Description:
The chain is an alpha+beta fold. It is built from six helices and 22 strands.
Amino acid sequence: MKISKKWIKTGVAAILGAGTVGTVVYASVRPQEYRTIRLQQSDMEELVEGDGDIVSGDYRCYFSEVTAPIEELHVEEGSSVRAGEQLVVYDTQDAETAARLAATQANEVYTSGNAILESNERLTEYVTQAFTDYDMASFMTDYFQAYVDYTRDQLAEYELEGKEVQKAELELQDYQNKMNFMEDKDDREKYRERAFDKSMDVIGKKEEYLEIDEVTLKKNLQAYEEKLAEWKAKKEKYEAKAESKLEVLTPSGEAKVGAAKQSASIQKEDAQRILALTEEGIAAETDGIVSEVLVEEGSLVTKGTPLFVVQDTTEKKVEAALSKYDIGKVRKGQKARIQVGDYSYEGTVTDIRQIARKDSSDKAKIVTEITIRQPDEQAYLGLEAEVEIITDSKEDVMVLPVEAVYTDDGGEYCYCIEEGRISKKYVTAGISDGIHTEITGGITGTDEVILDAVTDEKIGSRAKGSAE
């Protein structure tokens, strides 16, 4: 029996069609393979990462404690200084002159003050005796005559001192004029020395001249002359008893003399203290880096003038800017790791600023201060540093890779393979280090968790995992 070609073709097509349907059916029931993993035991660290700049832990602005010219200045911006290193040397000439002058004036005040007090003590005795001794009238006449003569001599000396000052000033001017017109260098230098000596002479004469109080002298002279006339009248009348008492220093007057002596002593001690400070200059109190210089060598500075700023390098910190999402995890005392180029350091969170600041992208950041433990010279001030703050750490906890854990309104969950099909399980998650997430509940160590990306549409579909 012959079979037609038409039927052969039809049979072949039928067979081929049956094979295709079988393949599709097989493919629809074959489980899809996924990368899977089970819970693993590991140590965990929860980290907050950030970056910032290395800054000094402290700084000191040095101020001048004296008024004097700066003879030597051993600092410049960016230079290193060591504790005890001499940074400023002052010119001590003015301070030495002031100290000598204060000492001289103090000695004079002491001498004159003691003489006044001794004279007052004797005068008090004389006044007491005047009430009982008729001869006191004669004594008081001589006494006031001496004071009148002495005061007149003082006034004459005052006038003479004034003339001497004028004369010395004219001589000084003459020396200066001659010096200015001298062409020979040696002659000019000779007159310069004479002018200097004469200027010191003028200063001395002026000091002596200004020490004399003309108004008081004239007032005293008038008083002494009046007393002298009074006592002469009493002497002539041979009064049986002194009718008036010589004016002596009251307790307040004695106190004024004592105050003058004390003031002179204080001025002397103050001048000596200033001289000591000037001779001492300024030395660095700690190791550091000079960040700012505010004066120049040779300049005259007054007391209180800021000189320079030294950043303390014995303590260094990183000021890291953290986002509002991370700052809630950070606390003072937490440990941190710091990376500066190829160098690594350990640190501790020591401060969290309470005012946010804007970064270059205008986002608000909270500055967190991390103190570097045992910083070395490679931790240069101003360098950028990367920080990892350890906000939490746990040992021997169960973890999953972060890509296996998802989040929705119900919380954290993962996709598992159970009995050959995909299921969705909600879990209780703990801390995360960015690579792993701690799992504290919801699945066990026997659960096979899918690592590949999965959606809820796959729940219930057949699946096969790679985990053993």
